[in-house]
User: Which sequence fits this backbone?
């Protein structure tokens, strides 16, 4: 700023407005940039979807299906939280859940428990796991890794947990499960084929 000079003074003699300004500027006198609102992170992504929800709705009726789906949603959210994951509230499918986990072993444990809950309530689930970078924004997550998790979920049999090779590699020594190779699959909208594995408990 032209025609300015530095004057040493005690804080007691500085107006409150000036003190507030000085508290938010950087040492170089430049205010910090405002946050963009987007946060990039790496996560283990769980995608769970009720199997053939359209047919179930036709057979059970709208009200009965929605009541069972709401009950299952409550159960899945509790399971995910207990396993160390975070349910994505911005995902508004109505027929399933999207969640992220910090560790592959937690995600696998959570997915297996979700599968048991779905079977118990008569609403079996497609369950898929993938790991990768995501963008967190407004209580939602976006990115190619989320899309791949959804595609892997769609490949799974009712109640089955399928994981990408990335998740298998991360959990190979930390999760007490077996991984059954299901081969490579071309996923819609994904350039590279993905090798997927079915998860089996060690005592199965």
Assistant:
């Amino acid at each position: 700023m032209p025609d300015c000079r530095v004057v040493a003074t005690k804080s007691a003699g500085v107006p409150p407005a000036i003190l507030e300004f000085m508290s938010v500027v950087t040492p170089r006198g430049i205010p910090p940039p405002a946050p963009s609102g987007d946060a990039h992170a790496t996560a283990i992504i769980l995608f769970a979807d009720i199997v053939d929800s359209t047919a179930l709705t036709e057979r059970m009726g709208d009200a009965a299906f929605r009541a069972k789906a709401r009950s299952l949603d409550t159960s899945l959210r509790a399971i995910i939280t207990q396993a160390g994951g975070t349910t994505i509230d911005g995902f508004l499918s109505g027929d399933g859940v999207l969640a992220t986990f910090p560790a592959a072993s937690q995600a696998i444990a959570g997915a297996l428990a979700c599968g048991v809950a779905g079977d118990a309530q008569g609403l079996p689930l497609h369950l898929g796991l993938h790991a990768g970078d995501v963008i967190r924004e407004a209580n939602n997550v976006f990115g190619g890794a989320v899309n791949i998790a959804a595609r892997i979920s769609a490949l799974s049999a009712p109640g089955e947990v399928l994981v990408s090779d990335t998740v298998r590699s991360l959990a190979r020594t930390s999760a007490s499960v077996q991984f059954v190779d299901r081969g490579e699959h071309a996923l819609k909208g994904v350039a590279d084929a993905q090798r997927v594995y079915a998860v089996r408990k060690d005592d199965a």
